[in-house]
């Protein structure tokens, strides 16, 4: 680990002149005297009375259901030891950041200057009523075991010592997959553990629950192997791990012929010779931080067949607790669980192990500098920035909580999974209505030129979720090989060189270009292009829609659609609309792609079509025509064009709410703030459909808003076609493609 990382971290913790890493942000408005009277006195008295009558209502009227206390006494902080409660605060704040970033859980970090276990327990129990869960952190062994046990008895909310269970859960998931990769049977696998503290004991217990036999397990502490023959001098908690192999004198003895080494101890305590003495395809989890029990490169040099995991991010298979605690608490909080049980921990283990065997989406590769991952020796567990971990692990934990009887609240797991998906994919909120209506409907979507990993992954995701039947247009042999791991009856391949309906499609090509005098040979040549072929398949009704998302330029992919796809009656020109899902709202921008300088009639048409489309998405439209001025009486040709477009729209689509004049963007988005300033009647609701005077303004506004907000985009959606045909820009993610 480079030394400058520590100096950089000091700067990070004071960045922007604001010390620390967290803040408290209200979730309700407090802008007026009336807001204040609701948030505090006198209005706040009513939820107090309701909770006093029924304490369970605290989950309904306060943030308890999404609030975790991260609590430490600073007696075992990272690799620093007993540095005291105040010095542990940066770590606890860091834990709060991870809870919020990965699972949207709010946290108060609480540092308790108390080493006496009983007094510490009393303090934590006394404040536990305020929280939905308690995460104990960096508390020294052996007190940590007793503290957790007692708090679990006294509190009716989840209490979880992450140093024990978090490490155990992630290591166990990696262990299951290492066993699969090496072809071992878990009941025959010989495991050696070094380190019998909080993490080491917890990992060993979990491995036993997974099926490792006690006679195949040796646990070592700093004195060496824990043996039954020395039990009179042993810590009572270590007795459960005492081996009857009394001939063992050292860690080196224990490792001879062992299949698996698990280290929760100190750096550089394992030598290359020890690893050489292990069985074929040895599994080495050297999880001491920041220096592992044996360096990754040393272990690989000693045994090229080693499967290695560490606690470090610069080597493969990082055993990182962030894969566990945010998602375990998410599932526990959402079910209002009274505890985190062994069943819930095991559910997390099996869920993480199963997810690692799934194809890895391109969005994960981007988060790790373009590196690609696939299940195997160097990818045993998912990466922390894999967004799927939230809705895999949390759902598994919630299911286990309900099945073992600790959940106060029952969840519809399918709905819950979808809700969690929306947390990591805001665009999912926008398409949830159409997705639910088409799932299982077996609609066929033509997809030309499958030439990138994101599109390949999206196709397979759409098949698994039964969103559509992909009709892949291209060379049969290449597409068949690409889809070799997918059941053949879940998709179709159309090779233009083998087209059975060539005569029908040829006639359609000629019909769609009536003024070009296209010959049969010219039409057949056109149909050899996968994009044109896919468009004509859709136009002929052989497919229900088209989606292109290759590495070609957008203009090149959209051209066949503009030439060959028919438009709806009354549509003058096809336009493009982008959807942008933000944390608290959705915005729709048009025209962002096609019409460079639209007329007033075209603007009105685009606005009406956009509004009607989002109505089908379950969103109530409010339209604003955006300009540099507000409700002008006179103005430039551009302003007059917008004014005329508004009048046309009100005449032809009177049911749609629209600002009665051109407005600036801030007025459109925050009308309440300007009602007393702008002397003009405005709609009750902020605008969510933004129509711009030209392509340059619309495209720039969309892209600027997307970058500044970090929102999730869908589009561009082509408006005005008889059948949906859309083109994704280069660089689109898997989720963006599936949502489209």
How would you portray this structure in words?
- The protein is an alpha/beta fold and 740 residues long.
- It has five domains: 52-157, Malic enzyme, N-terminal domain (Rossmann fold, 3-Layer(aba) Sandwich); 165-317, Rossmann fold, CATH 3.40.50.720; 323-424, Rossmann fold (3-Layer(aba) Sandwich), CATH 3.40.50.720; 432-564, Rossmann fold, CATH 3.40.50.10950; 575-720, 3-Layer(aba) Sandwich (Rossmann fold).
- It is built from 30 helices and 21 strands.
- It has a six-stranded mixed sheet with strand order 7-6-5-8-9-10, with helices on both faces. A six-stranded mixed sheet has the order 18-17-19-16-15-20, with helices on both faces.
- Helix 12 (296-302) links the parallel strand 9 and strand 10.
- The longest helix is centred in the first third of the chain and has 21 residues, at 162-182.
- The mean pLDDT is 90.
